[in-house]
Amino acid sequence: MKLTKGAVVEGGTSLNYKTGNWRDQRPEIDQKVCNQCGKCKDVCPDDAVHRNNELYEIDYDFCKGCGICAYECKPEAIKLLPEGK
Amino acid sequence: MTVKKETPKESLFVSGHRACHGCGMALGARHILEATGDDVIVVSPTGCLETFTSPYGFSPWRVPWIHHVFENAPAVASGVVAALRAQGRDHTRVVAIGGDGGTFDIGFGALSGMLERGDDVLYICVDNGAYMNTGGQRSAATPPWAATTTAPAGRQSMGKAEMKKDLPEIVAAHGIPYVATASIAYLGDLKKKVKKAMTFHGPRYIQIDTPCPSVWSFPSHLTLEIGRLGVNSGLVPLFEKENGTITATRKIKRKVPVSDYLDKQKRYRHLFDSEQGQFEIEKIQALADTNIEKYGLLSV
Amino acid sequence: MDDIRVVEGSEAVALAIKACRPHVISAFPISPQTHIVEGLAKMVADGDIDAEYVRVESEFSAASVLAGASAAGSRSYTASSSQGLLLMTEVLYASAGMRLPFVMTGVNRSISAPINIQVDHQDSMSLRDAGLIQFYVESVQEAYDMHLAAFKIAEDPNIMLPVMVCMDGWVLTHSYERVQFVDQQAVDDFLPPFAPEHYLDPAAPKTWGSYAESDVMMEFKYAIHKAMTDGKPRIREILRELSAMTGRDNNGLIETYRTDGADIILVALGSVTGTVKDAIDELRDAGRKVGLLKIRCYRPFPHEEIWQAVKDANVIAVMDASFSMGSEGSIGLDLKAKLFGRPQAPMVVDFVAGLGGREINARTIRRLVVRAEEIHRLGLVLPEAQWVNLDASIVS
Fold first, then answer.
1. Per-residue pLDDT tens digits for C361-379
2. Do B78 and C98 touch (CB under 8 A)?
3. Is the pLDDT of residue C171 over 70?
4. How much is the pLDDT for A85?
5. How far apart are CA B153 and CA B147, in angstroms?
6. What pLDDT tens digit does each residue of chain B (300 aa) get?
């Protein structure tokens, strides 16, 4: 692909760069415990939690497994599991 | 390069950036843009934020964003403002987001110039208290007795021996309409302040405490927790100053001793290993108590 | 009809910039650039020019304001000199890399230390590697003319690089000359508004100032070089259009003066070329086969034109007003690099002259020609540049 003049890049293109393989622990939301407060989405540095209909879901393409969502979740609905077990 | 379309993305600062695990700055950037809305142009100096968001071909910015060099973000922002005014693009606002190195230190002259000229720029410092992009060297924003790679703890050193530059006060002394401090631990408060800043014209300044798991050395899930401890110890006072007068402070609900904040971070570990260190912890406690007194941080 | 007035060089430049309708002007004062930016400030204050004037706290910020303004889609201008140009250096490299086509006047002045405010070319020559297009002018009229062309060259979609018009401090900025001004309508016809392919726009958000890894860094750097070298035909074309507009000969990346059949060709740039032309007339009258090659466009380096002009001469005597310490003068280095290995290339003798405002008069030039003839006659191989009018006896 031809390089752009001055290295100007389209916005939002980092979605083509998956960071999911940086993860060594995997957060999983227990939807039965989740109260849909949205905290996990708010606190994710990687914008990897999205609301799909009523449910919050983790986008494993991008989640780096930092664990903030699990730590901050008041109802303790998010468990951190070892990745690739 | 095409943008993935299938996942609905509301964010103006999307996934796929290369910040470290649990980066407070990345979290801050997304929430800043949520508060500013999309009719902004963002300017950043060289630093972590720039590096992890600008690998050629992979940008998380969904607003126009420009990085030029390390020490000139305020002046670049002034240039953008001038161009917008010349072109009559009056609705678009300019926001600069830079780290403490680019703000407290190398870009300080340009920042002061921009503030003095009264340019319509919201300058946000995402402060993590050292030069993280190059491995955590001391900056003027490094708090006292934190160990950094260029002011390390050693047999004859307790880390940084100097105070943190009081930039909010220095900035406020330029007579600008709005100065605030915020923390990524309190995202609602942070967004409220950014939104409020956007209602003013002229130069405005917000300094956001952005804990850095990599260099402060704490587990990546504790980013917000560390931020909260900083605020609730009194070491990170959160306030707003409008036209030179403090108009609001965030009260500490339950005060924590500074040692609760310090002992979770490796950059302070040396303080817990010696009598001298204990003495320095007392001095840090005194700093927190001074802040609490000065800003009236405890509810009465 | 013709608008001909006697004006100070700085005023002529300010009027040329006004005619180009910049959106944004930003500057920090430094001698001898001040009259240009003061003139523009007064025009803005009087409402004679519809531009934002950003009064910055340093040259570093002046260039940075231009970078921001240019990226936001505005035609932008600054002027600086000497230390100020060096302070801008980092910003200029980055601006060339980001292909931001602003225009600046480089008012030539020597570099500290010792501090000195007189003319030489050390300041702008120190920026020759930055990716700026550089022109050097001989007269106030040429300064006026080249500033009119500068934006058109900078903003050409295939070039998109900052352009610096270099003019000698004091000698040109502070002298009064008869200048013929171009009608505003003609300038507007010549120079359309700046309309870049990309600019900072929330409706089409783009990211500027990327980080490039080693897989593409060389290509981005090569692209700047290619924009310059491939840009030469376009620059020639724009200078032809400029000539058509001004009715003056602004043609060519170089100018030759009495080089036909010349054994010795002096190479110079800037205001000294006027003095050299007078000296050449005298020398020609005395039967000496001497000519001048004036470099108008220094970056991109017009080595093709230079070769055509010098290939039949015996000696090229370069007059360098800047020096790469420990090596040679700047133009000398360029010429030697481009001529080396060409069969029958003339010998290049590098003379360093005029540093810190040291006078160069007709006598200096006659002596320099005599020395060049002598070097050629004796077949001397000179390992070092020749410092002209240097009093080596007082150097400790």
1. 999 999 999 999 999 999 9
2. no
3. yes
4. 61
5. 5
6. 444 434 445 799 999 999 999 999 999 999 999 999 999 999 999 999 999 999 999 999 999 999 999 999 999 999 999 999 999 999 999 999 999 999 999 999 999 999 999 999 999 999 999 999 999 999 999 999 999 999 999 999 999 999 999 999 999 999 999 999 999 999 999 999 999 999 999 999 999 999 999 999 999 999 999 999 999 999 999 999 999 999 999 999 999 999 999 999 999 999 999 999 999 999 999 999 999 999 999 976
Whether C206 and A12 lie within 8 Å, measured CB to CB: no
Residue B192 and residue C84: Cα distance in Å, rounded?
42
Interface B-C, measured as beta-carbon pairs within 8 A, has a size of 164
What is the rounded distance in angstroms from the CA atom of residue C356 to the CA atom of residue C203? 51
| CB-closest option in C99, C207, C216 to A5 | C99
What span, in angstroms and rounded, lies between the C-alpha atoms of A33 and A76?
7
* C326 part of contact set with chain B, CB < 8 Å: no
Give me chain A's average pLDDT, please.
Answer: 96
- The rounded Cα B193 to chain-centroid distance in angstroms is 13
Name the class of domain B24-295: alpha beta
* B133 has a chain C CB within 8 A of its CB: no
Beta-carbon contacts of residue B69 (< 8 Å; ≥ 6 apart): B45, B46, C64, C90, C91, C94
Q: Is B16 on the interface with C (CB under 8 A)?
A: no
Q: What CATH number has the domain bearing residue C161?
A: 3.40.50.970
C308, C217: one domain: no
For residue C13, what is the enclosing H or E element? helix C9-19
Chains contacting A (3 or more CB pairs within 8 Å): B, C
B222-274 per-position pLDDT tens digit: 999 999 999 999 999 999 999 999 999 999 999 999 999 999 999 999 999 99
CATH class of residue range A27-85? alpha beta
pLDDT digit string, tens, across residues C208-266: 999 999 999 999 999 999 999 999 999 999 999 999 999 999 899 999 999 999 999 99
Q: Give the whole-angstrom CA distance, residue A21 versus residue A27.
A: 14
Give mean pLDDT, residues C72-98. Answer: 98
Find chain A residues with C-beta within 8 A of B210's C-beta: none
User: CB of C184 within 8 A of CB of C133?
Assistant: no
Tokens of C206: 């783009």
Task: List CB contacts (< 8 A) between C212 and chain A.
Answer: 7
Same domain, C302 and C227: no
CA distance C26 to C58: 10
B59 with A12: Cβ contact below 8 A: yes
Domains contained in chain C, number? 2
Domain end among C210, C228, C246: C246
Are C193 and C300 within one domain?
A: no
Residues C12 and C96 placed together within one structural domain of the fold: yes
From chain B, pick out residues whose CB is under 8 angstroms from the CB of A25: none
Q: Does A82 touch chain C (CB under 8 A)?
A: no
Q: Read off φ and ψ for residue B57, nearest 5 degrees.
A: 95, -5
Contacts of C368 (CB under 8 A, 6+ apart): C266, C317, C319, C351, C353, C388
Task: Determine, for residues A5 and C223 on separate chains, whether the beta-carbon distance falls below 8 Å.
Answer: yes
Residue B1, min C-alpha distance to chain C (Å): 12
Strand partners for C166: C106, C136
A15 CB near a chain C CB, below 8 Å? no
